[in-house]
């Protein structure tokens, strides 16, 4: 019988959504999570504790290629990184699924088009109760139905910003957000971006998907379990070895995140699979992508009294804007960067940080990082080595410069920018990409590994391209599609 019919390793966006999709089938689902549930605390809404003292930041370190250690900022807890996410649930644009020419090269495209995934995008938006508006963003792809909830309302300073950007010739639109605003603000008047969700105000992987899944008696969650390696015999995974013993199931799903899923496959190497499991293509760990991203602060004499701020985006340069019409990327608001956050992130003295923060509106500029086989996850003595090789950086510099010009036209005389570095996990993906060709991909278009018929992957590892949008909704849509496929096979 085994411990379950399906064993899922990881409870983040992929694993939790997959469990929610499988729960109504009656199949026995066991989720193994190395972390624990986040408990509510005073620190959960304290910007000094979060950004200054790193209260929630895990102690885990990885290695850079030169051997130096760094803290990657990836969270091990029920719900994974989604507990701290900005709750942005954007669809890839339709053009993102095909080969697309960028300043830094041409993307390989996906093995299917946008229309193939669209029905599961609809379902994922419903599951995560996304608030949005399909009619104002010129790049928004077709939806099967309108959003079930209206957009999260702009605060006065952001409504004024939208008017200014429109007058400057742009097309600002509401961010699609998985946030219950009243519930979030009832706990404390803070932003949600990078703040942990301990009371359910964000519709994250735990709150929206895992809670629903666990209402079914056939779904179980076991926390505090570290998975060390997988056993394989005759091409099939026969066991999952952990610090809590051995677990078995007819189907195993890796949903540990783009880095840890790749590391687990590599760590499971044996005599038959000396390069690691699911790695006939030698693509496991390769094509690591992490969005090119910068914080952009637009300053003016006007006071910004916003609390949460993160409700607006601009996609005018998403599909064009480069010197030959190449895409530049997405612009969206950051959660409100208060003086304590700015001081903690920059080292500025408190009075200066307060002067800037009080008069700034904070933007997040995001450009696509292209897949590169030499940008990769490897192991050294069992430890994770991350060799992230940025690509398409000129496009990002172009996006930041173009945004600065537009903001000055919109009435912000001073605009500052600062790029995020490798210690900020800006949507890591791509290390076990899906595809139709076993020679160039790790998993098939549904997420089943080409090499092992009972081993699946369900997280950001699968993404063949990073696009220039937040990946959470796409991961969720892929998970629901995978759930339907597994249920069909098990019927």
Notes on the structure:
- With about 500 residues, the chain is of the alpha+beta class.
- It has a single domain, classed as FAD/NAD(P)-binding domain (3-Layer(bba) Sandwich).
- Helices cover about 25% and strands about 20% of the residues.
- The protein is built from eleven helices and 20 strands.
- It starts with 5 loop residues before the first strand and ends with a helix.
Topology:
Blueprint: E1 6-9, H1 13-22, E2 29-33, H2 47-52, E3 62-63, E4 69-70, E5 101-102, E6 105-106, H3 114-127, H4 156-167, E7 173-174, H5 181-187, H6 205-213, E8 219-223, E9 227-233, E10 236-242, E11 245-247, E12 251-254, H7 258-267, E13 292-299, E14 312-314, E15 330-333, H8 339-346, H9 350-358, E16 360-367, E17 376-380, E18 383-387, H10 393-409, E19 414-419, E20 455-457, H11 472-490
Parallel strand pairs: 1-2, 1-12, 2-8, 12-20
Antiparallel strand pairs: 3-4, 5-6, 7-14, 9-10, 10-11, 13-16, 13-19, 14-15, 15-16, 17-18
Helix pairs in contact: 1-6, 1-11, 3-11, 8-9
